[in-house]
Write the structure tokens for this entry.
Amino acid sequence: MKKSTIAYILLTLSIVLIALVGLSKTRGAESNMLITNTADSAITDVTVSDGVNSWSLGDLDSLESSHMQERFQGEDPLRVSWQWDGEARQSTGCNSSAVEAIMEIDGQSAAVVCR
């Protein structure tokens, strides 16, 4: 093979590799999620996971909200977990393609609206 042919093949492979890496970084939708504690008491250790990444939102007092804007990457629906009344709880949220999510946690359970 000529040096120019080898150089062309290497350049082409480099471009394809850069494109694949770029696409993997932008996978998932940019989403807004609002989580509100509607219980009469605080919930603690609120965590959101997309199966790839995990975000700790901390504690939410009664009627307090937390907003997050992320590019979720997992294939499965989001998992939201928290502690309430000394017990670990969790709920399934929206899938990663949702643009907007509203979750209300009433202590022992959660209601979710996905758009």
